[in-house]
Amino acid sequence: MVNRILVGAHYGLKDWVIQRGTAIVMAVYTVIFLVVIGAVGPNSFETWRGVFANGFMKFATFLFFVSLFYHAWIGVRDIWMDYVKPDGLRLLMMMATAAVLVGYAGWAVQILWRM
Amino acid sequence: MAELAIKKKRPKNLDLPTIRLPLPGVLSILHRVSGAALFLLLPFLLWLFQSSLSSPESFASFSAVVGHPLVKIVLLGLIYFYMHHFCAGIRYLLLDMHKGIDLESARLSSKIVFGVSIVLTLIVGVRVLW
Lengths: 115, 130
Prior knowledge:
The structure holds two protein chains of two kinds.
Chain A: H1 13-40, H2 45-53, H3 55-83, H4 87-113
Helix pairs in contact in A: 1-3, 3-4
Chain B: H1 2-7, H2 23-40, H3 42-54, H4 56-67, H5 69-96, H6 103-129
Helix pairs in contact in B: 2-5, 3-4, 5-6
């Protein structure tokens, strides 16, 4: 039997596949973003804001941010699991990581919808 | 059987300074380092994104910050980290699908990752920052 511990991963395919799924979303967005920026060539506040005022780009950018934060959660959690051995400290680092990432997600929504 | 294999005498080399990390290993640790650096600088990047979008005044201060030579160097470094993480990540997705897992292909693909990420950094970095 696997010795399941509180500060371990979730012992399944879920995080593994989410890490890769979010990576694909971000990779596709990166290409779309570079093509849009290359085509629009924003050089002023109005044209730059126009890129994200577009409904599709707003949605795609939001999806990128959500993927980024989930992807970062799995990656950073793996780093704590590799290098931080005391359970209490590791749990604290994981909770702090999750907390800032949830906060960043709220911040990203605010940036995109209050601009 | 397993125990027998473990007890067998094997050559050891623990002279660490003489062990050179092969290129796929350098790629691997740089994948982690770049991911960690991008994570740590997320608040700075989100703040830049926010000031670039919220108002014409904040856009002006954003342009001033991004125009500073030191900030440009940091951003160029972050663009390199992003491109490396992106290219190395695609390589890992291919490895997951059992493409290019023999030694020769793995070494070649890590060379390609280093080359392509530097070229992309120069193209995007120069275009965006200068």
